[in-house]
Amino acid sequence: KLFMWFYSNRSAWHTVNEPYDFFGFFDKKSEILNKEHMEELDRLVKEMDKNANNNYEDFVKKCNEFFEKEEYPKTIEACTEAIKLKGDDPALYQIRGLSYFFTPDKPKTGLDALTSIGSANKYAAIADLTKCTQLEPTKPECFYALGYVQLKTLNKDELEKSAKSFSE
User: Fold this and answer.
1) Cα–Cα dist 162/145, whole Å
2) Nearest-angstrom CA–CA distance, 80 and 11
3) CA separation for the pair 15, 71 (Å, rounded)
4) Residue among 27, 96, 34 nearest 66 (CA)
């Protein structure tokens, strides 16, 4: 766990020359990383990157499987985990956006029903589909999905956004 924290917090690399020996990698005489320790650290980092890539592929596979089965909350979870590992895949934002759109919000009661301005899931869908169009501006499926969700979600005053997405 400490190694994961150290690896994921690059600012910790600047304080590595402190006299602390987190991993037993410091040469006791010079308090610097020696060649063997650097090679071991490189090997561990490469192994972690490989594991992260395998996890990413597993999450993408689950994301697609859940979407095909119309299990939208599970799709959202799997896509979110994949996006955490690699956040530049427009297909993940498209699938997660559509899953948000098809997932009903929790029923609103009392004050929430009076003060709420619409559907949280629908606006999350618009955000994800907008991100999809930004990552892949030549992908018509993203613009079509965004236009459809905007058409079904936005107020009549904002429908020009939907028309613009369909035009794109």
Assistant:
1) 10
2) 25
3) 45
4) 96
Please, which pLDDT band fits residue 110 given cuts at 50, 70 and 90?
Answer: low
User: What is the C-alpha to C-alpha distance for residues 79 and 101, in angstroms, rounded to an integer?
Assistant: 14
Q: Compute φ and ψ for 64, nearest 5 degrees.
A: -65, -40
When pLDDT is cut at 50, 70 and 90, the band that residue 56 belongs to is confident
Helix (H, G, I), strand (E, B) or coil at 162: helix
Give the single-character DSSP code of 33: B
Task: Band the pLDDT of 22: cuts 50, 70, 90.
Answer: low
DSSP-H helix ranges across 69-139: 72-85, 90-102, 110-115, 120-135
3-state helix, strand and coil shares in percent for the chain, rounded to the nearest 5:
75, 0, 25
Interval 88-107 mean pLDDT: 87
